[in-house]
């Protein structure tokens, strides 16, 4: 690697950091203008049925209330590309929390008071909101999320399992989980001369623009969506959400700018969630620990509005060698809010079950859990047969074991005590696919020797501006501070959402291509540059249209040490270590932050985060941060991330893999396996709260 200031991999400080800590950075709900109005949603209070009457007179009498939109008077939409955006179009109530009215007022306080004064009558129908492993409505869809076949079979997994000398047959249950980014979902919309401008808290303003254009029946050129600073998303902002459509409708109806910020208690119903899953894993192995059969069967729910199937069995198609395999997803439609993307969808929940089962198999065999995983390394991707572009899981496991001091542990469960605390350690593997989408970018050279790069990337807290500047600077052979980065507007060259750990690879490839073309253009140019400089654009459509002959994945290994209070059942994570193989690391500072952030989220999944569906009222009971517990600093006293230097020529011009999501994958399983080692009790339902552990403690 070059020692030049612009070299990729350097821990360059994120360029928007000072703006954020000083309050200069402005978010979607901070773009207010004189004359702005404020919206407040009236959510349905029944789980299934129809609105039969809405009385708005009391709401309109509240001082400051401008209007109340209902399905009777709201602007008509065209058919949107996502059914969750068809709000205030009819009287149906598909789930509790669905918007049945929108109060628009001169202040947020007046809008809220007006919303509380709206009276709604319903004709209810019997609802069903509880997922069970044997639900009568279960069916096998054609595809799971991401276009994966819902069912894949190799060989005869059932017969191979039945004849295996050593078997594990276990069912793991995960309840619903919620994204809860720091910045709630918000939109500010205004119309001027037929042009709509929306400041939206989104992971991709191009996608929001396209959805708004379809829903409102407008040309894309008539809409500008800006997502300049976004306070986290974790997938919940990866697709447009109802607040952007409602704000645009209200602004069109009133002729004034309208801002709509969702209260946190509304988010569980309106912005998606990680669907609950019931996962049965069956592993068959010979007495040396070599897998002969792998079965991973998923049961999950979707909404009545649309089909979204969590692809939790897909990682089992990637991880371990076995001549026989069966992976299946089944789903049932319930009267629940639509599930959606949540950080590492599929991998986070599926790898918890698979890696817990691998630990159970290691215990049954009396083989070290690290060694068991090493014995089942595949030569090619098991389901597809494609060669891996690179696979350094074994290196991650070995390096992690060395750094963690793994081999010094006593494998016997419930063998270490420290006063009332029971101590244990656990390990789990991690994987995440390498994804890339078509993107465009522009690169401009100015007469003063500076450069400007434009790409509609979105920085959701990952440091995208900084890394993209480093990519451009490395091609242009200039310091990163000499490159200005324009992102976060649909008027910029089109780019995909920040999701699927594909942002940097997608945007960066376009930036690299544009910068490379600019270098050639400058080499051909003679004389001084014109006042407007020289600008080139590039598009990676040709590159991304080609299917890779390689299976491309990032891998990692998680190690955890826990202490379990034998008196209270409290679990404390003392140490977390993650070691990753994710291609070339482009910025060591922001990368470590991403890895650690994902691991903290995995800790929350294991110990504190859980959402309960109320069968009577049909809603999630944990609807705020007082009841939905995310980890705090006190929960993560020692958390470390490292990576393997990995050269992979089959990825992109930077040689990078996505890193935003692999940190969460495997963390929950490592912690769960450590709890089993500490206590001797194998719990198969997350989160591992004290009430679940107490019955198993001495």
What can you tell me about this protein's structure?
- The structure is a single chain.
- Helix content is 25%, strand content 24%.
- Residues 1-5 have low confidence and may be disordered.
- The relative contact order is 0.13.
- The protein contains 16 helices and 27 strands.
- It is of the alpha+beta class.
- It has a seven-stranded mixed sheet, with helices on both faces. Strands 9-17-16-15-10-27 form a six-stranded mixed sheet. Strands 18-19-24-25-26 form a five-stranded mixed sheet, with helices on both faces.
Short description:
This protein is α+β, with helices and mostly antiparallel strands. 25% of the residues lie in helices and 24% in strands.
Short descriptors:
single chain, 698 residues, alpha+beta, seven-stranded mixed beta sheet, six-stranded mixed beta sheet, 27 strands, 24% strand, globular
């Amino acid at each position: 690697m070059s020692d030049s200031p612009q070299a990729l991999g350097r821990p360059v400080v994120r360029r928007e950091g000072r703006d954020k800590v000083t309050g200069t950075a402005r978010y979607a709900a901070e773009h207010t203008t004189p004359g702005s109005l404020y919206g407040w949603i009236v959510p349905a209070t029944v789980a299934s049925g129809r609105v039969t009457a809405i009385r708005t007179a009391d709401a309109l009498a509240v001082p400051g209330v401008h209007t109340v939109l209902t399905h009777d008077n709201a602007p008509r939409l065209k058919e949107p590309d996502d059914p969750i955006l068809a709000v205030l179009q009819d009287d149906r109530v598909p789930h509790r929390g669905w918007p049945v009215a929108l109060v628009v007022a001169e202040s947020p306080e007046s809008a809220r008071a007006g919303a509380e004064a709206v009276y709604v009558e319903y004709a209810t129908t019997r609802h069903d909101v509880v997922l069970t492993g044997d639900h009568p409505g279960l069916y096998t869809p054609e595809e799971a999320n991401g276009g994966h076949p819902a069912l894949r079979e190799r060989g005869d997994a059932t017969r191979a399992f039945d004849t295996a000398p050593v078997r594990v047959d276990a069912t793991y249950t995960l309840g619903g989980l919620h994204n809860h980014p720091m910045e709630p979902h918000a939109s500010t919309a205004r119309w001027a001369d037929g042009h709509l401008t929306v400041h939206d808290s989104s992971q991709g303003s191009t996608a929001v623009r396209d959805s708004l254009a379809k829903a409102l029946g407008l040309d894309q050129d008539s809409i500008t969506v800006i997502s300049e600073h976004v306070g986290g998303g974790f997938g919940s902002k990866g697709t447009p959400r109802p607040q952007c459509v409602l704000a645009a409708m209200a602004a069109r109806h009133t002729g004034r700018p309208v801002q709509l910020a969702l209260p946190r208690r509304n988010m569980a119903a309106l912005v998606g969630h990680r669907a609950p899953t019931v996962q049965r894993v069956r592993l068959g192995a010979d007495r040396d620990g070599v897998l002969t059969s792998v079965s991973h069967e998923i049961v999950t729910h979707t909404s009545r509005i649309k089909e979204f199937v969590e692809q939790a069995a897909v990682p089992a198609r990637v991880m371990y060698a076995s001549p026989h395999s069966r992976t299946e997803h089944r789903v049932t439609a319930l009267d629940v809010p639509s599930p959606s993307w949540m950080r590492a969808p599929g991998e986070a929940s599926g790898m918890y079950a698979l890696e817990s089962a691998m630990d159970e198999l290691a215990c049954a065999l009396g083989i070290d859990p690290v060694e068991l995983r090493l014995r089942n390394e595949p030569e090619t991707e098991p389901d597809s047969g494609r060669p891996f572009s690179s696979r350094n899981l074994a290196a991650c496991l070995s390096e992690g074991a060395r750094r963690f001091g793994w081999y010094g542990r006593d494998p016997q469960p419930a063998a270490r005590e420290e006063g009332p605390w029971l101590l244990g350690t656990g390990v789990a593997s991690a994987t995440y696919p390498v994804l890339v989408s078509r993107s465009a970018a522009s690169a401009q050279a100015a007469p003063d020797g500076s450069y400007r790069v434009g790409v509609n990337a979105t920085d959701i807290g990952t440091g995208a501006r900084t890394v993209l500047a480093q990519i451009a600077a490395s091609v242009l052979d200039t310091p990163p501070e000499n490159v200005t980065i324009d992102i976060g507007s649909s008027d910029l060259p089109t780019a995909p959402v920040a999701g699927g750990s594909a942002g940097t690879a997608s945007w960066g490839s376009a930036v690299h291509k544009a910068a490379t073309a600019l270098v050639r253009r400058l080499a051909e140019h003679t004389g001084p540059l014109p006042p407007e400089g020289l600008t080139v654009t590039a598009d990676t459509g040709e590159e991304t249209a080609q299917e890779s002959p390689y299976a491309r994945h990032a891998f990692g290994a998680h190690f955890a040490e826990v202490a379990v209070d034998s008196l209270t059942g409290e679990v404390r994570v003392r140490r977390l270590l993650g070691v990753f193989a994710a291609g070339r690391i482009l910025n060591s500072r922001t990368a470590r932050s991403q890895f650690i952030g994902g691991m903290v989220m995995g800790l929350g999944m294991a110990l504190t985060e859980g959402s309960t569906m109320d069968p009577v009222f049909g809603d999630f009971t944990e609807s705020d941060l007082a009841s939905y517990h995310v980890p705090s600093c006190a929960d993560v006293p020692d958390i470390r991330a490292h990576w393997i230097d990995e050269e992979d020529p089959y990825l992109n011009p930077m040689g990078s893999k996505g890193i935003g999501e692999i940190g969460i994958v495997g963390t929950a399983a490592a912690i769960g396996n450590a709890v089993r080692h500490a206590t001797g009790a194998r719990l198969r339902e997350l989160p591992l709260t004290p009430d679940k552990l107490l019955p198993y403690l001495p």
